[in-house]
Write a structure and sequence with these properties.
binds zinc ion; binds adenosine-5'-diphosphate; alpha/beta; 17 helices; 32% helix
Length: 702
């Protein structure tokens, strides 16, 4: 009989260590999955590398219930990844491991798992090897000179680390991923590749492209998806297929970074700048950063791709210059679009010349109609859903404040509701002003609903040359709440029924709309002067994405060039100037200079402690107490800023406060946090009125 340490998902610091000791009659190896008793429950555990505590009396320990014998152990690289993630993001190891495994695995007995494995084995044997003839076989096109040069660089032995593929939208980045994957997979029959995307439902075309490229070579089932919209059973099957080495390619969202892939040889992170790579609850990990770390652990290549890289990755891929030895990433550029379709022309429409409250400048409406009449489509982008951000009374000061939050409720006219987008509260629109009884309630600002209706009315008064009515469609989180609606609405756009597409950032990402000739950016000014220092970076990425939607297909000779029209009261703003030149490097350089001068990331490293309580004082007291104790251990490299109420302090009746911790040195920050975390937990136990708290490392929004 032996004693083994086993990781279980026990809440951190609930008096239990990270791994618990159990006895087992049969020998167990690290990484093996087992079922163990925990209190009165029976839970999934992972046999861990840590040595059991010394001088244990086996009689005092509980025994492992069963081992999942048919399942290979999770390999050392996977275990190191989980270990690193737990430590870096300040979470319990057991919690991290649980989060990294498919939920359905937790409740499966060894017997049921064995049956499932039998089925898996049978189905892969049936599908093993290439399909003899496949009608959908998609041949790889011969690479363009830019693609060829990038592929040659990536194939060189010294490109085994992380590369940043900086390529304009439509420059053929996806094709580079596919061809690089093809050569890695063909070099070794065991090799596997992981390709990550921000949101899978926005990229059905990519799934199709990957399948049709590789299924003819490696058989159906060689590509599996992993994302949170899959059922638990689908996720389990995909996970098993990758873990057993049956799947050669995993295509997934951020959670796929933890897929167990014994043959992993390549990781691709598409749209690496996208904020959805950061998990926003529980262990707040960045899947992009973990992908880079995983590549480092496994000694394999990682490709980060984007037309507008995150400033972090851009900075890390800077070339050597003088004293500066340059970044650790290799920067690869593909500036041209495939087929030499020119990037669209970007122009600002000066809204200072229009009456206040104008939704669309008249010249812009005419431009839209002209495009549509020529058989093209128009996209109207506004990052605010609903009708208007706030309902107001014209007589008194009443505004539609949310009773539970410190923000206004958004007026949705479609279903006459007031909704608050943060706490989810929905209510009827009042018939008269709750403040003074005035029946004449108006609104301020605009949302996608309002733009859609305005455009519908404007186009309804006009006739299309063919006599049919114009089609105006809106796509945003409201229009796509029901399952299947997004796909249905995208199909409408592709089929050409839609002339004008109104929407939020959802419509700007990734879609290959072939006939989009004009993109209208309705009201981007808010992000120019936001309190969030990342707002301009996000706006620029969004506008470049939108810009990438326009004019993807080669245009008819003599046709007007594709256009992006930006309605703004700040037409001379440097962000728009850079956008006009499609100049990401110029924009990035000016942002990085600003960030350096202000001591912001990527020149410093940050962590946030966030707390919630019913009263703001309680949230602040806890943070202040922890800060005072932290100051004594911080040393000169780490700065602890005073605790402050959050910009939006009240959400769903909880008051929220936060405290920023900063250091120019990542290791110093990590060292401080790991020491300070015991203090935080002790203080939490003393401040019982704090309802929630969390540490966010490398926060995306402050
Ligand atoms: P990105 O991912 O950079 O936006 P894609 O890889 O999707 O670019 O390529 C844009 C378009 O160009 C796609 O329709 C793709 O099929 C096509 N394409 C890419 N590479 C080539 C090539 N070498 N030859 C012909 N067409 C290509
Ligand atoms: Zn009033």
């Amino acid at each position: 009989m032996g004693i083994f340490s086993v990781l279980v998902d026990a809440p951190a610091y609930a008096g239990l260590g990270d791994a618990l000791d159990y006895t087992s009659e049969v020998p167990l190896e690290p990484g093996q999955l087992v079922r163990v008793p925990l209190g009165r429950r029976e839970v999934l555990g992972v046999v861990w590398d840590s040595a059991p505590a010394q001088h244990l009396d086996p009689a005092a320990l509980r025994a492992v219930i069963e081992a999942h014998a048919g399942l290979p152990a999770l390999n050392p690289a996977w275990r190191k990844l989980v270990q690193f993630a737990a430590q870096y993001y300040q979470r319990a190891l057991g919690e991290m491991a649980a989060q990294a495994l498919p939920p359905a695995l937790r409740s499966l007995s060894a017997e049921r798992l064995a049956r499932r494995l039998n089925k898996q084995g049978a189905s892969t044997r049936a599908g093993a090897g290439p399909a003899s003839h496949s009608p959908t076989m998609a041949e790889a096109p011969p690479p363009t000179p830019e693609q060829a040069s990038v592929l040659t660089t990536l194939a060189a032995p010294d490109a085994s680390g992380t590369s940043l593929l900086f390529g304009s939208t439509g420059s053929g980045k996806t094709e580079v991923y596919l061809q690089r994957m093809a050569s890695v997979l063909s070099a070794d029959p065991q090799a596997q590749a992981l390709i990550m995307v921000p949101e899978i439902n926005l990229t059905p075309q990519l799934q199709e492209r990957v399948r049709s490229r590789f299924e003819p070579l490696y058989g159906p089932g060689c590509v599996v998806s992993m994302h949170s919209a899959m059922t638990p059973v689908q996720r389990l099957n995909a996970w098993l297929s990758a873990h057993l080495g049956h799947a050669r390619i995993v295509l997934g969202t951020r959670l796929a970074v933890f897929a167990s892939m014994p043959g992993l040889r390549l990781i691709v992170v598409d749209e690496e700048h996208d904020p959805s790579y950061k998990q926003q609850e529980g262990a707040r990990y960045s899947a992009r950063d973990l992908a880079v770390y995983r590549g480092h652990l496994e000694g394999i290549q990682v490709i980060l791709g984007s037309a507008t890289p995150s400033l972090e990755s851009w900075h890390k891929s800077r070339p050597c210059e003088g004293e500066d030895g340059g970044g650790r990433y290799l920067r690869l550029a593909m500036p041209s679009r495939v087929g030499a379709t020119a990037l669209p022309e970007v122009r600002c429409v000066d809204m200072r010349l229009m009456p206040k409250g104008t939704l669309f400048a008249p010249l812009l409406l005419d431009a839209m109609r002209e495009r549509v009449d020529q058989g093209e489509q128009v996209m109207v982008l506004l990052n605010r859903r609903g009708w208007a951000p706030v309902l107001v009374c014209s007589d008194c000061d009443w505004k539609s404040e949310c009773p539970h939050c410190s923000a206004y409720r958004v007026f949705h006219r479609e279903d006459r509701t007031l909704r608050w987008h943060h706490c989810g509260l929905t209510g009827r629109v009042p018939r008269h002003c709750p403040g003074c009884g005035n029946l004449d309630l108006g609104w301020q600002g605009r949302g996608t609903e309002q733009l859609q209706e305005h455009l519908q009315q404007w186009f309804a008064q006009r006739a299309h040359p063919s006599g049919r009515p114009y089609g105006v469609l809106r796509i945003d989180a409201d229009s796509t709440r029901l399952k299947g609606h997004l796909e249905q609405q995208l199909a409408q756009v592709h089929s050409g029924e839609v002339d004008v597409l109104v929407g939020t950032q959802m419509i700007a990402k990734g879609h290959d709309f072939r006939r989009m000739g004009l993109v209208v950016v309705a009201d981007p000014d808010g992000a120019l002067f936001s309190a969030d220092f990342r707002a301009p970076e996000r706006l620029f990425a969004l506008l470049m994405q939108a810009d990438g939607r326009a004019g993807r297909a080669a245009r008819e000779p003599g046709a007007a060039p594709a256009q992006v029209l930006v309605q703004t009261r700040h037409p001379e703003h440097p962000l728009f100037e850079a956008l006009k030149r499609h100049d990401y490097p110029g924009f990035a350089q000016s942002q990085l200079l600003d960030r350096q001068a202000a001591g912001m990331p990527p020149f410093t490293h940050q962590a946030l402690v966030r707390t919630q309580a019913r009263a703001i004082e309680d949230a602040l007291d806890f943070l202040e107490a922890a800060r005072q104790l932290g100051l004594t251990m911080a040393g000169e490299w780490v700065t602890l800023y005073p605790a402050v109420p959050m910009a939006m302090p009240r959400v769903a009746n909880a008051e929220r406060a936060q405290m920023l911790i900063e250091s120019p040195n990542r290791a110093a920050l990590q060292h401080f946090l790991s020491q300070w975390s015991t203090t935080l937990h002790e203080q939490r136990a003393l401040h019982k009125r704090v309802t929630r708290w969390a540490v966010d490392i490398d926060p995306q929004a402050i």
